[in-house]
Design a protein that fits this description.
By secondary structure, the protein is α/β, with parallel strands linked by helices. The protein is about 45% helix and about 15% strand. It folds into 4 domains: about 150 residues, Orthogonal Bundle (DNA polymerase, domain 1); about 100 residues, Beta Polymerase, domain 2 (2-Layer Sandwich); about 70 residues, DNA polymerase, thumb domain (Beta Polymerase, domain 3, 2-Layer Sandwich), CATH 3.30.210.10; about 240 residues, Metal-dependent hydrolases (TIM Barrel), CATH 3.20.20.140. Strands 11-12-13-14-15-16-17 form a 7-stranded parallel sheet. Strand 14, helix 21 and strand 15 form a beta-alpha-beta unit. The two termini are about 50 Å apart. Bound molecules: 2'-deoxyguanosine-5'-triphosphate (DGT), calcium ion (CA) (2 copies) and zinc ion (ZN). The site of 2'-deoxyguanosine-5'-triphosphate (DGT) has 14 residues, from helix 12, strand 4, helix 14 and helix 15.
């Protein structure tokens, strides 16, 4: 069982307990362990084999250890099941509606037996909420808006890219084990295109020549249906199996002959709109394109089908990477040999945002450095939070200076990778940075970002970010729109104006690779590139495990047509430092300031 799955069960238990009116200490203990699992490097399933190690983890005592064993053994937790008999499972949805918390959800249940978002909307529209204790007309409106947001976000039935990716890898590894007849398992659909959320996973399974008879295909389908993490089978045809996994994710598996793999991969990768354009083009050339092959209109003679490259070439197009297949000009670019040469994971030379135990990270400077070195990086910046972010134990000037010293000292113990002293300095409500200039001047990398007052009016938010960009110490704006995928909408502001200012002042924009963020997103990255804004792809890691999220940032950047030359941290150390907004600039902008280095 994955940590994420166990964390979900514990978190739901905590939420149900809170709705049920349990005392705070009781449900918080479940929440704390759920948080812990989210950041744990090791699989708890492995840790739990050693009772002593399990109980050494913070927050896990005798009782909690027993609960974890129960979950590992049964795949569920009896207390959660018991509570779910008392309340409908959909009541957990209500907790994800912005402006509703457990107390209000409990009240809604008590008064109206309301346990899902549709009922909530109905009650709110009928004006029945405003008279409840602690509600009022204003919160009724807020709840209606929240319900709408929920339907676009958490209630959309989509999952984050990393969740789909991990589930897809696990299932693929299982299918490969079906035996000799399976040659390959490939993810298609939105997952292959690297979309930030995935509706369902599309897997293509090719059979070895000779092993692709109906009998063999049938055996593979039977094997797939025995996958332990299936909640239920949705469809089971001759060449297609659709299943719903325990995690709630749907997977469509298609079994096909190797000879038409290219045509099938092209078709099932999509996007639908890209396919429509390709089919139109094929028709204009006197051919027809479907999931089996590109063939002549008359006579049905096969023109191409084995590889995507073949098919694109016959259509007189350069090969189009999956991330670009969104029908936003890629076909025209392919026709005129104008496609970008997209950034690749292997181009990345360092990571410029991560946290350590100095603020809200789980690992030390040395541990982060060591893991990054193993990933093959030349440099990293350690960027803990500044004081305004109190929930994350942000650092004031004194602690920041001490942290710089610690990073310099840690360098001795971590050879082979350069440890840069950085900060993720908070952008305050008025746009000022959260630390004194003379403190900021001593840092190698200054990353600035918003963590509070996220609902300002667009004009005020634009001015706030503009002020941060105009501050001569700001080098990178991190997670610029603040969105949390499927959970929180982006800030509203004038993106074009912000990007123009970033270009003018030489401030880089981050593509935050943390899969909950992916911020800037693809469309904004493309806008940034068109303005010559420099891009940084950083993981915003809070543990060593998160450092490998870089992959999702790169996918997002590729969807934004980003090339190696656009990305600062695809450059060697000295060039990267030279590409950051210069420190000399700071001295010039503020003549009274003496640079500290
Ligand atoms: P998703 O699952 O909502 O994240 O997005 P996709 O793009 O994976 O969409 P999905 O799973 O419905 O279909 C996978 C691909 O299969 C899609 O990108 C294009 C292709 N496809 C599916 N149905 C149709 C169709 O009716 N017409 C065309 N042209 N292509 C289709
Ligand atoms: Ca799909
Ligand atoms: Ca599908
Ligand atoms: Zn942040």
């Amino acid at each position: 069982m994955e940590n994420r799955e166990i964390a979900r069960i514990l978190r739901e238990t905590a939420q149900l307990l809170e709705i049920d009116g349990a005392i705070i200490g009781r449900y918080r203990s479940y929440e704390k362990v759920a948080d812990l699992l989210g950041n744990l490097t090791d699989r708890i399933e492995d840790v739990a084999k050693d009772e002593k190690k399990l109980k050494e983890l913070p927050g896990i005592g005798e009782g909690m250890a027993e609960h974890i064993h129960e979950i590992l053994k049964t795949g569920d937790y009896s207390l959660r099941q018991k509570l779910l008999k008392k309340y409908p499972p959909t009541i957990l949805q209500l907790l994800e509606v912005p402006s509703l918390g457990p107390k209000r959800v409990a009240l809604l249940w008590k008064k109206f037996k309301c346990a899902n978002v549709e009922e909530l909307e109905k009650i709110a529209r009928e004006g029945k909420l405003r008279d409840l204790p602690g509600f009022g007309e204003k919160s009724e409106q807020a709840i209606l808006k929240g319900a709408e947001q929920f339907k676009n976000l958490a209630g959309s039935g989509r999952v984050q890219l990393n969740v789909a990716d991990e589930e897809s890898r696990k299932l693929s590894a299982y299918i490969i084990k079906a035996g000799q007849d399976v040659e390959s398992v490939t993810a298609a659909g939105s997952l292959r295109r690297g979309k930030e959320t995935v509706g369902d996973v599309d897997l293509l399974v090719t059979m070895r020549p000779g092993g692709d008879s109906q009998k063999h295909t049938h055996a593979v389908a039977e094997h797939i249906l025995k996958y332990p993490e299936i909640k239920r089978a949705l469809a089971h045809g001759e060449n297609k199996v659709s299943v719903l996994l325990e995690s709630g994710l749907q997977v469509d598996v298609r079994l096909l002959a190797k000879k038409s793999f290219g045509a099938a991969l092209l078709y099932f990768t999509g996007s639908k709109q890209h396919n429509v354009e390709l089919r139109g083009r094929a028709n204009d050339m006197g051919w027809t394109l479907n999931e089996y092959a590109l063939t002549t209109l008359k006579g049905g003679k096969v023109v191409a089908r084995e590889t995507e490259e073949d098919i694109y070439a016959k259509l007189k197009l350069d090969y189009i990477e999956p991330e670009l297949r969104e029908c936003t000009g890629e076909i025209e670019a392919a026709e005129h040999h104008k496609l970008p040469k997209l950034i690749e994971l292997g181009d990345i030379r360092g990571d410029l945002q991560m946290h350590t135990t100095a603020s809200d990270g789980r690992n030390s400077i040395e541990e982060m450095g060591e893991t990054a070195r193993k990933l093959g990086y030349e440099y990293i910046a350690l960027t803990d939070h500044s004081q305004a972010v109190t929930v994350a134990n942000g650092m004031d000037e004194r602690r920041t200076i001490a942290q710089i010293k610690k990073i310099r000292a840690a360098q001795e113990h971590v050879p082979g990778i350069r440890l840069l002293a950085g900060i993720e300095v908070d952008i305050k409500k008025n746009g000022a940075l959260d630390l004194h200039d003379d403190c900021l001047a001593q840092l190698d990398v200054v990353v600035a970002s918003v963590h509070s007052y996220m609902n300002l009016e667009p004009a005020e938010m634009t001015d706030r970010i503009l002020a941060a960009i105009e501050n001569p110490y700001t080098q990178i704006i991190a997670h610029p729109t603040g969105r949390l995928i499927l959970r929180r909408e982006p800030f509203e502001y004038d993106m074009e104006q912000i990007l123009d200012a970033a270009a003018k002042h030489g401030v880089a924009m981050e593509c935050n690779a943390f899969p909950d963020r992916l911020d800037l997103k693809d469309v904004h990255l493309r806008m940034a590139k068109q303005r010559g804004v420099k891009i940084v792809i950083s993981t915003d890691s809070h543990s060593t495990r998160h450092l490998s999220f870089m992959n999702y940032g790169v996918l997002t950047a590729r969807r934004g047509w980003i090339e190696k030359q656009d990305v600062i941290n695809a450059r060697p150390l000295e060039e990267m430092l030279a590409a950051l907004r210069p420190k000399s600039h700071q001295a010039k902008a503020k003549p009274a300031m003496r640079s500290a280095d």
